[in-house]
Design goal:
Chain A is α+β, with helices and mostly antiparallel strands. Chain A has 3 helices and 5 strands. The chains are: A alpha+beta (106), B alpha/beta (382). Chains A and B meet through helix 1 and helix 3 of A and helix 3, helix 9, strand 22 and helix 10 of B. Chain A: InterPro entries: 2Fe-2S_ferredoxin-like_sf, 2Fe-2S_ferredoxin-type, Adrenodoxin-like, Adrenodoxin_Fe-S_BS, Beta-grasp_dom_sf.
Chain lengths: 106, 382
C-alpha cells in the first residue's frame, strides 16, 4: 500500500497509507486532513481539493485535462508549478513516498 | 459549553456538522442518527457514475470507519429518530431515548411520488434518492431495456443520460412546456435538449403522464398528448419535499421546510437545522436550496454557532450536473431574473448563459466552460 506524506497548511506533516485506486482527495478526506474541502466530492467542479505535488511526481502523473487546467487558474491559494486537483489523481505505486503539499488558503 | 450534541440525519449536512464540531474543538459527545442503515455516503453519484457502475459502493462513503473512531463520532446509521421530546431535551429513536444539549436536524428531503392511484400495484416504478433506490434501478439500465423517465429536471436528465450510456432506449416526458422549466432558462434547456436528442434520448415536452397500466413485466404509460409508451421501468424525478415531519411534530416552525434563522437555528434555541430540509430568508424571500456545497456550508455554520460563534450564514449557492460528456456548473441563484444572455466558449460544446435582474448579474450556467464558471463564482462573491 503506497505511503503518502501530506505537508499540511500549518506546517505539520502526516503520513498516510493509501488504498490504490482511491483518489488522492479521498485519501485526504479519510484521514480528516485540514485544507481539503472537496465540496463537489471529486467531480472536478469546485477546486477545493487543491494540492501541490513535487516536480518529479508531476512529471510522472497523467497529464492535466483542459478542464482541470482551467479550474486550477481559480484556486483559493494561488496556482503554483505542481498544482493539481487531488480528486483527479489516482493512487498507485507512483505515489509511494511522495510528499504532497496542501496549501494554506490565500 | 454543550456536552451532548445529537445530529438527526447521516447525510452530507449531518456529516459536515459532526466533522466541523470536532475541527472547532468540541470535546463532548456527538451522536449521528441515520435511517438507511448505511454510513454517510455521497448522493450526487447515484444518478451518475454509481448508476453506471463506474463507482462502487465503498467509494461512495465520505469517510472510513477509522475516521469516525478517531474523531469519536458515534454513528447509528439504522436508528431513526421518531420524536423530539423538547421538554425533556431528548430524541426518541427506534431503540432508545438520547439526551441532547443541542440537536441538529439534517433530515434531507425525499422524492415527490406519483399519485398513489396511478402507481398502485406497479413494482417497476423507481425514484432516486438513496443508495437502495440506485441499487434497485441499476439492473434496469442495460442494452435493450426500455426506460421511461418522468420529469425533465436535472435528476431526470442525469438518469436518462446514464441509461442511454448503458445502452437502454430512453424516453423522457416533461409536463411543463419544456425541460428544466423551473430551474433554467430556455438556452440551457435547448442545450440539453439537443445533447440528449443527439445521443438518442427521446424528449417529449409539454405532456404529462395520465395513466400507467401494467402488463406482466411491462408498464405502459399514457401521455396527455394521446401517445402511449411501453417501458420496462419508469423512473420518476419530479422534485423533492423536505423531511420536516419530526420538526413539525415537535412544534417547530415549518414553512415548506424547517425554518431557520441566519445562524441555522430553528424556533427552539437548542435545535438547529441544515441542508435540504431547511428554509431560510434570502433577499427578502424564504427559500430552500438543494445543493451539496450549500448543505456543507450551512452545516458547518451551524456547528460553529452551536459552539457560540454567532456567525450568520450567507449562502454561496452553486451546483453541478454531469450528463454524457457535458459538465454543467452553475454559479448563483437565478430566481427573479428578467433577462438572459448566451455566449459561446472555448470549445464548440461550450456555452454560458448569464441571468440578470436589470443590470445585476444573478447567476451563470456554464456548459463545458470551467473558466467562466470560476470567474462567475468570483464575480458573484461565492
Amino acid at each position: 500500500m503506497p505511503k503518502i506524506t501530506f505537508a499540511l497548511p500549518d506546517g505539520k506533516e502526516r503520513t498516510c497509507s493509501a488504498n490504490e485506486g482511491l483518489s488522492l482527495m479521498e485519501v485526504a478526506l479519510q484521514n480528516a486532513l485540514p485544507g481539503i474541502i472537496a465540496e463537489c466530492n471529486g467531480s472536478a467542479a469546485c477546486a477545493t481539493c487543491h494540492v501541490i505535488v513535487e516536480d518529479a511526481l508531476a512529471a510522472m502523473l497523467d497529464p492535466i485535462s483542459e478542464h482541470e487546467n482551467d479550474m486550477l487558474e481559480f484556486t483559493a491559494a494561488a496556482r503554483q508549478p505542481g498544482s493539481r486537483l487531488s480528486c483527479q489523481i489516482r493512487v498507485d505505486d507512483r505515489l509511494d513516498g511522495a510528499i504532497v503539499r496542501i496549501p494554506a488558503e490565500a | 459549553m454543550p456536552r451532548r450534541i445529537v445530529i438527526v440525519g447521516a447525510g452530507q449536512a449531518g456529516l459536515a456538522a459532526a466533522a466541523k464540531l470536532r475541527q472547532a474543538g468540541f470535546a463532548g459527545s456527538i451522536t449521528m442518527l441515520g435511517d438507511e442503515g448505511l454510513m454517510p455516503y455521497q448522493r450526487p453519484p447515484l444518478s451518475k457514475a454509481y448508476l453506471l457502475g463506474k463507482l462502487e459502493a465503498d467509494r461512495l462513503s465520505y469517510r472510513n470507519e477509522e475516521f469516525y473512531r478517531h474523531e469519536e463520532i458515534e454513528v447509528a446509521p439504522g436508528e431513526a429518530a421518531v420524536e423530539i421530546d423538547r421538554a425533556a431535551g431528548e430524541v426518541v429513536t427506534t431503540l432508545r431515548r438520547i439526551s441532547y444539549d443541542h440537536l441538529v436536524l439534517a433530515t434531507g428531503a425525499r422524492p415527490i411520488e406519483l399519485p398513489a392511484p396511478m402507481a398502485a400495484g406497479i413494482s417497476n416504478i423507481f425514484y432516486l434518492r438513496n443508495r437502495a433506490d440506485a441499487d434497485r434501478l441499476r439492473p434496469s439500465l442495460k442494452q435493450g431495456a426500455r426506460l421511461l423517465v418522468v420529469g425533465g429536471g436535472y435528476v431526470g436528465l442525469e438518469v436518462a443520460a446514464a441509461a442511454r450510456q448503458a445502452g437502454a432506449s430512453v424516453t423522457l416526458v416533461e409536463m411543463a412546456p419544456r425541460i428544466l422549466n423551473r430551474v433554467a432558462a430556455e438556452p440551457t434547456a435547448a442545450y440539453f435538449r439537443n445533447l440528449h436528442s443527439a445521443k438518442g434520448v427521446e424528449i417529449r415536452e409539454g405532456t404529462g403522464l395520465t395513466e400507467l397500466t401494467v402488463d406482466g413485466a411491462r408498464v405502459t404509460a399514457s401521455l396527455a398528448d394521446g401517445s402511449r409508451h411501453s417501458a420496462d421501468a419508469v423512473v420518476v424525478g419530479i422534485g423533492v419535499r423536505p423531511n420536516a415531519s419530526l420538526a413539525m411534530q415537535a412544534g417547530l416552525a415549518v414553512e415548506g421546510g424547517i425554518v431557520v434563522d441566519a445562524f441555522g437555528r430553528t424556533t427552539d434555541p437548542h435545535i438547529w437545522a441544515a441542508g435540504d430540509c431547511t428554509t431560510f430568508e434570502y433577499d427578502g424571500e424564504m427559500i430552500r436550496i438543494e445543493s451539496v456545497p450549500h448543505a456543507i456550508d450551512q452545516a458547518e455554520h451551524v456547528a460553529r454557532n452551536v459552539l457560540g460563534a454567532g456567525r450568520a450564514y450567507r449562502p454561496r449557492p452553486w451546483f453541478w450536473s454531469d450528463q454524457f460528456d457535458t459538465k454543467l456548473q452553475i454559479a448563483g441563484l437565478n430566481r427573479g431574473y428578467d433577462r438572459v444572455q448566451s455566449a459561446g466558449g472555448p470549445a464548440e460544446s461550450s456555452m454560458t448563459i448569464s441571468y440578470f435582474l436589470g443590470e445585476r448579474l444573478l447567476a451563470v450556467d456554464c456548459l463545458n466552460d470551467a473558466r467562466s464558471f470560476m470567474q462567475a463564482k468570483r464575480q458573484l462573491g461565492l
